[in-house]
C-alpha cells in the first residue's frame, strides 16, 4: 500500500499535511461533498423534512395539472356548445337558402309564364290591329273604286245624255222635273 500512497503523493493528488490545495480526484471528493451538503441542509433546515418538501411540491404540481385539466374540459365543453350552435345556425341558413332557391326558381317560372302570357296578349292585340287595318284599307279601297266607278258611270251617262239631248228634249225633262218637284211639295 505504501507504493500506492507514495504514487498519489508524487502525482499531486494528495496535498501534503499543513498545506491547502484542490483535490482533483472525483471518486475521493464525492462522498465528502455529499456529507457537507447534507450537513448544511440538516443544520439549516431543522424541522423541514425533505420528503415533506418534495411531497408539497408534487401536490402543488398535481393541483395545477388538475386545474389545467378542469379548465381544458370547461373550454372543450364550451367549444362543443359553440360548435353545436354553429351547426344549428348552418342548418337554418342552409334551409333558408334552399327555401330562397326554391322560391327563386318558382318566382322565375312565374315571371317567365307572365312574360309569355304578356307576349301572347301583345301578339293577339297586334294581330287584331293588323286585321282592323287591313279591313279599313280594304273598305277604303272599295270606296275609292266605287267613287271611280260612279264618276265614270256619271261621266258616261252625262256624255250619253249630252249627245242624245236636244233643246226640245231638254226643256221637256226640265218641265217633268219641275212637275215632280211640285208634286212632292204638295204631298208634304
Automatic annotation (TrEMBL):
Principal cellular location given in the protein's record: membrane
Keywords assigned: ATP synthesis, CF(0), Chloroplast, Coiled coil, Hydrogen ion transport, Ion transport, Membrane, Plastid, Thylakoid, Transmembrane, Transmembrane helix, Transport
Subcellular localization, as worded in the UniProt entry: Membrane; Plastid, Chloroplast thylakoid membrane
InterPro entries the record matches: ATP_synth_b/b'su_bac/chlpt (IPR002146)
Membrane topology value: Single-pass membrane protein
Gene Ontology MF terms in the entry: proton-transporting ATP synthase activity, rotational mechanism
A Pfam family that the UniProt record links to this protein: ATP-synt_B
Coiled coil: 69-103
GO annotations of cellular component type: chloroplast thylakoid membrane; proton-transporting ATP synthase complex
Membrane-spanning residues: 32-54
Note: In plastids the F-type ATPase is also known as CF(1)CF(0).
Record-stated family: Belongs to the ATPase B chain family.
Subunit and partners: F-type ATPases have 2 components, F(1) - the catalytic core - and F(0) - the membrane proton channel. F(1) has five subunits: alpha(3), beta(3), gamma(1), delta(1), epsilon(1). F(0) has four main subunits: a(1), b(1), b'(1) and c(10-14). The alpha and beta chains form an alternating ring which encloses part of the gamma chain. F(1) is attached to F(0) by a central stalk formed by the gamma and epsilon chains, while a peripheral stalk is formed by the delta, b and b' chains.
Protein task: F(1)F(0) ATP synthase produces ATP from ADP in the presence of a proton or sodium gradient. F-type ATPases consist of two structural domains, F(1) containing the extramembraneous catalytic core and F(0) containing the membrane proton channel, linked together by a central stalk and a peripheral stalk. During catalysis, ATP synthesis in the catalytic domain of F(1) is coupled via a rotary mechanism of the central stalk subunits to proton translocation. Component of the F(0) channel, it forms part of the peripheral stalk, linking F(1) to F(0).
Protein name: ATP synthase subunit b, chloroplastic
Organism of derivation: Ceratonia siliqua
Amino acid at each position: 500500500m505504501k507504493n500506492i500512497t507514495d504514487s498519489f503523493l508524487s502525482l499531486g493528488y494528495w496535498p501534503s499535511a499543513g498545506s491547502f490545495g484542490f483535490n482533483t480526484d472525483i471518486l475521493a471528493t464525492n462522498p465528502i461533498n455529499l456529507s457537507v451538503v447534507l450537513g448544511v441542509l440538516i443544520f439549516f433546515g431543522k424541522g423541514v423534512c425533505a420528503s415533506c418538501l418534495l411531497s408539497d411540491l408534487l401536490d402543488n404540481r398535481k393541483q395545477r395539472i388538475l386545474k389545467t385539466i378542469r379548465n381544458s374540459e370547461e373550454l372543450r365543453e364550451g367549444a362543443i356548445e359553440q360548435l353545436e350552435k354553429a351547426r344549428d345556425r348552418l342548418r337554418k341558413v342552409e334551409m333558408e337558402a334552399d327555401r330562397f332557391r326554391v322560391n327563386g326558381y318558382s318566382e322565375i317560372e312565374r315571371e317567365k309564364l307572365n312574360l309569355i302570357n304578356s307576349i301572347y296578349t301583345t301578339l293577339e292585340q297586334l294581330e287584331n290591329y293588323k286585321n282592323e287595318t287591313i279591313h279599313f284599307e280594304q273598305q277604303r279601297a272599295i270606296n275609292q273604286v266605287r267613287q271611280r266607278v260612279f264618276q265614270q258611270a256619271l261621266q258616261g251617262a252625262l256624255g250619253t245624255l249630252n249627245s242624245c239631248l236636244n233643246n226640245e228634249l231638254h226643256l221637256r225633262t226640265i218641265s217633268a222635273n219641275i212637275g215632280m218637284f211640285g208634286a212632292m211639295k204638295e204631298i208634304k
